[in-house]
Amino acid sequence: MALILASSSPIRRAMLMQSGLEFESIPAAVDEKSERHRHDCAQSLATALAQAKAVAVSEMHSGDWVIGSDSVVTSDGRIFAKPDDIEEAADHLRFFSGKPMRLTSAVALARGGAVEWSHCDSATLQVRPLSDAFIAAYLDAEWPEVGYCVGVFRLEGRGVQLFETIDGSYFTILGMPLVPLLGALRQRGAIAA
């Protein structure tokens, strides 16, 4: 029985590799935009996307455990998706400036086309006031990498400069609640206990 990550996310792959797991990475073909229209709550959206990704790949690899994960950012009552381009990324950063951002990450395990387990967690990040000059310099240095990140930041990079305070799990902020996932894999015998 193999372990599969239903994602091409470099940070999610790094998280699993650094924790010592052996796995294959197979990106899931999921229509995220249609899922977004069906959910008005960050927790339900992140969970639905994580589960959909895990199920999509597990249908093709029925005997294997498949990990799906997704993250959603909300600020001032608005749910944000990844920016389509650098101009939209700058708009997002201007919107976040001086406000709290809530990052919600979900992870799911599926096998044989069915969800076996899922978990959702949130963190609150207080964005400091950002000048237009800082936003331009930040995007000049971090684009296009942050274009693949909801919230337009990588905490493991220059993105840490966006925040005044951070309250929540580091792994949740990186995009996958790793500690609960490892526990779920151990309980199911997918990794050594």
Major sheet characteristics:
7 strands, mixed
Name of the CATH class:
Alpha Beta
In the CATH hierarchy, the third-tier topology is known as Maf protein
Structural class: alpha/beta
What does this protein look like?
This protein has 193 residues and is of the alpha/beta class. It has one domain (3-187): Alpha-Beta Complex (Maf protein). Helix content is 36%, strand content 26%. The protein is built from seven helices and seven strands, in the order E-H-E-H-H-E-E-H-E-E-H-E-H-H. Strands 1, 2, 3, 4, 5, 6 and 7 form a seven-stranded mixed beta sheet that branches. Strand 5 and strand 6 (114-127) form a beta hairpin. Helix 4 (86-96) packs across helix 5 (132-142). It starts with a strand and ends in a 6-residue tail after the last helix.
Provide a concise account of the structure shown:
This protein is α/β, with parallel strands linked by helices. 36% of the residues lie in helices and 26% in strands. It starts with a strand and ends in a 6-residue tail after the last helix.
Chain-wise SSE layout:
Layout: E1 3-5, H1 10-18, E2 24-25, H2 32-37, H3 42-58, E3 65-75, E4 78-80, H4 86-96, E5 100-111, E6 114-127, H5 132-142, E7 163-167, H6 170-174, H7 178-187
Parallel strand pairs: 1-2, 1-3
Antiparallel strand pairs: 3-4, 3-5, 5-6, 6-7
Helix pairs in contact: 4-5
List keywords for this structure.
193 residues, 7 strands, Maf protein, seven-stranded mixed beta sheet, elongated
